[in-house]
Amino acid sequence: MKRGRFFNLLTDEDIEMSMIELMNVFFAYDKELVLKDLSFDIHQGEFLSIIGPNGSGKTTLLRLFSRVIEPKMGEIRLKGKDINKIKRKELAKTISVVPQDSFINFPFSVLDVVLMGRYPYLENLSFEKKEDLEMARKAMILTDIFHLSQRDINDLSGGERQRAIIARALTQQPEILLLDEFTSSLDLNHKIEIYELIKRLNIEKSLTIINVSHDLNIASEYADRLLLLNEGSIHSLGTPREVLKRDIIRDVFECNVLIEDSPVTGSPYVIPLNSNLRIEDRRKILRIHVISGEGRGSVLMRRLFIRGFEITAGVLNIGDTDQIVGEALGISMVLEKPFSAISEQAFLQNLEMIEKADLVVMGKFRIGKGNVRNLEVVLEGLKRGKEFFIVDNDLDYDFTGGDAKRIYELIRERGGIFVKNHKDLMKKIDTKIKDMV
Amino acid sequence: MKSLTFTSWLKPILILFLLLIVTMLISLSLGSVRIDLKEIIHILSFQVKEGTDATILLKVRLPRILNAAIVGGALAISGAVFQALLRNPLADPYILGISGGSAFGAIVAIVLGLDIVLGEFSLLPIFAFLGGAITIYIIYSIARSRGKVSIYSLLLIGVIFNAFFAALIMFITSIVDFNKVGDIVFWLMGNITSPSFFVLGVISLYVFIGSLLLFFRAKEFNLICLGEESASQMGVDLEKTKRITFFAASLITGAAVSIAGLIGFVGLIVPHAVRLILGSDHRLLIPSSFLSGAIFLVIADMLARNIIAPTEIPVGVITALCGGPFFLWLLKRNEKRPFF
Predict the structure, then answer these.
(1) Is B180 exposed, middle or buried (0-12, 13-18, 19+ CB in 10 A)?
(2) SS3 state at B21
């Protein structure tokens, strides 16, 4: 059994108790191996979210915990005891489950359903006693459905019905709550509301929560740890920050995302980049070099990135917003030290990148002595026969005493193509792609 | 907060029980010969032992009415249970091929001339019961794979078996001696007769044991309504419950079919009517369904005997005439809800 790592510093109560331990668990439906060699612990009082693509074995794992199915090999221990040796009623006193959705074909009142949670505690055929009713009342107040207790469960909205099912699960007085995508049929406000409730139970009652979730951001926000399953094996297990990484998500979900800190909660926040193309394919279409600065290019870079082009950029000063966004997008850039003028070396590197690009795009930004070479490089590029799309600089941009304005004129003379704004730019790029194809 | 307590459980059951007694008394008095209440009580308390009225009452009407009550109760109780177990409001006791199997068994007995009376006992009920029991055993074995019974397979296999037996019955009817066709058709329509008290006793024993077994699983049926997986996660031993249910429900359905033939719709409409009034808690639903089913069939039989007396209508016709429209109403009412 796993014990606290700092056992010499902690009292007995502080030592992390294992609630569920998996030891080399395998499971197969027929001959198809669904879960492969899973070994890990779930601690008392933790909030664990199981994530992973469809068919990765999330729900199967949850069904193993509630013993709807049994492992083909290996062992699952609940509080140190082999789960298969625990009687069903005893198990129901420790673990309760909230399923995805519950349709009930017959008229039951909400109270009837909530009281069903008392089944493992009651004798055959007996009637519920005062304390059972009290338990149900508390659970219904907690989940805010007490006012609905006499209503037919089928007349409730999806959110209300799911709250009733949670109340039923709570009257089982469990130590562990298993939730299987239990908010998938709910709208956003109910989803958040129910997660807040679950989190509260987790903290106040020290209830161990294990949920299967498709929503990475909700999992990230509420869970202490994430278990990422892929093709039946553990891909990674750790805090949301450890698991929700760009390359991990790309590996497992085959989907390109941005990961930023949520401005509200501070947890990692996954932003999917909608593209029908896989990364490898889209790189082949067009390579675009972006010249920008002052943080004004970040929008441009992101838009082009989402469109699926391969992006490079330069020269950017380290610490500039453009550079930070570029870093997040994982694009290669030519960089210069913070608040420093563009050096000869950076200038040449930039030119090199321009030569490799199919197309160069320049946004609008203010130009001073420090970054005027980002303008000069355009002239060099045009000389080498490169195609340039330049966004009209309608800013009061010239801080070079007239040099910048002159260079803009030269660019226009030598064949730089000017566009009014980003929208125009995108249109131009689209026509260019059509011509290519 | 209202939840089921002993008092709120006992009250509707007592009321239904009294209603059943009253219905039976009325039914006892009606017929080609009217017997008034006073005389009925005299005869039933053995103060009057001789006379035509006593003979009619004790040899004809009383066994017949008790028969109707037991069959009605048995069909309703197994209907309630099958609906819960199959999580399907349209299920009835015959859905799993029991009707087909029993009918086939009975018809084999008729064709082979084994429906003769040996002493007080006809072999026909035994054949019908065996037919139903063997069929459900076969269906259950086929639907069972890797220790689990799939409800959907059960339903499908049941439908197929019923169709298969229907074909077999038609085949037999078409080649059999013309005199026996009438017997077969009469049995298929469902009939309440006046069996001997010995037969009644045996059938009642079956029905009583089966009903008790089911009644003791009432809470499990409640939980199964939330879904099999949920029920099991809440502590129900699902396989054990299913085994007991199939055994007990086939026992009582087979017993009922063996003495009354195929009486449709009782098992379907009675549990629904009870649910509408008393709710779905099976602790209350199972005994109330028994009593209501008994009341319903006693009334149906009373109508069958008296509507166009002296001609008797098969009671199955009456139940189907009431049941058909009710079934449609139920279907319409539940349109918005997922049925299967």
Answers:
(1) middle
(2) helix
DSSP A122: S
State residue B177 phi and psi, 5-degree precision. Answer: -50, 130
Query: Is the CB of B336 inside 8 Å of chain A's CB atoms?
Result: no
- Quick: pLDDT tens for A50-85: 999 888 999 899 999 999 889 999 999 999 889 989
Please tell me whether the interface predicted TM-score (ipTM) of this complex is above 0.85: no
pLDDT tens string B151-206: 778 788 888 888 888 898 888 888 887 777 877 777 777 777 777 788 888 889 98
Query: Looking at the 3D structure of chain B, how many domains does it have?
Result: 1
Provide the shortest C-alpha distance from residue B148 to chain A (in Å).
Answer: 11
B261: left (phi over 0), alpha (psi -120 to 50) or beta: left
- List CB contacts (< 8 A) between B1 and chain A: 111, 133, 136-137, 149-150
Q: pLDDT category, A418, cuts 50, 70, 90?
A: very high
Domain presence at residue B20:
no
CATH numbers and ranges of domains, chain A: 2-239 (3.40.50.300), 279-436 (3.40.50.720)
Name which of A67, A93, A102 is nearest B226 (Cβ-Cβ): A102
Whether chain A has a CB inside 8 Å of the CB on B230: the answer is yes
- Helix count (H) and strand count (E) of chain A? 16, 18
Question: Any residues with CB less than 8 A from the CB of B142 and at least 6 apart, and which?
Answer: B153, B157
Alpha-carbon span B319 to B317, nearest angstrom: 6
| Min Cα–Cα distance to chain A from B67, Å | 29
Query: Shortest CA distance to B101 belongs to which of B240, B250, B278, B232?
Result: B250
Contacts of B221 in chain A (CB under 8 A): none
Residue of A119, A128, A150 with shortest CB distance to B234: A119
In a domain, residue B27? The reply is no
Q: Is residue B170 part of a domain?
A: yes
pTM: 0.74
Chain A residues whose C-beta sits inside 8 Å of any chain B C-beta: 63, 66-68, 88-89, 91-93, 95-97, 99, 102-109, 111-113, 115-117, 119-120, 122, 124-125, 127-128, 133, 136-137, 149-150, 154, 172
Helices B37-44 & B6-29 angle (0-180, nearest 10): 110
Q: B232 and A88: CB-CB below 8 Å?
A: yes
Distance from CA of A165 to the nearest CA of B (A): 10
Residue with tokens 């202490």: A224
B289-328 pLDDT, tens digit each: 999 999 999 999 999 888 887 788 888 888 888 877 877 7
**Is residue B302, in this structure, part of any structural domain at all?**
yes
B276: contact with A, CB 8 A cutoff: yes
Chain-centre distance of CA B279, in angstroms? 21
Q: What angle do CA A220, A96, A91 make, to 5 degrees?
A: 130
- Among the listed residues A51, A29, A311, A323, the one whose alpha carbon sits nearest the alpha carbon of residue A181: A51
Query: What one-letter code names the amino acid at A272?
Result: P
Confidence of residue A1 (pLDDT cuts 50, 70, 90): very low
Q: Is B1 in contact with A96 (Cβ distance < 8 A)?
A: no
**Interface probe with B: pick from A31, A90, A102, A105, most Cβ of B within 10 Å:** A105
Query: Do strands A47-51 and A225-230 pair parallel, antiparallel, or not at all (unpaired)?
Result: parallel
Q: Chains A, B: CB contacts under 8 A, how many?
A: 104
Can you tell me the distance from the alpha carbon of A306 to that of A300, in angstroms, rounded to the nearest whole number?
10
Supply the range of the domain harboring residue B328: 64-336
* Chain A residues with CB-CB distance to B89 below 8 A: 105-106
For position B248, which CATH number holds? 1.10.3470.10
Q: What are the residues whose beta carbons fall under 8 Å from the beta carbon of B269, sequence distance 6 or more? A: B296, B322, B323, B326, B327, B330
Encoding tokens for residue B241? Answer: 């419950």
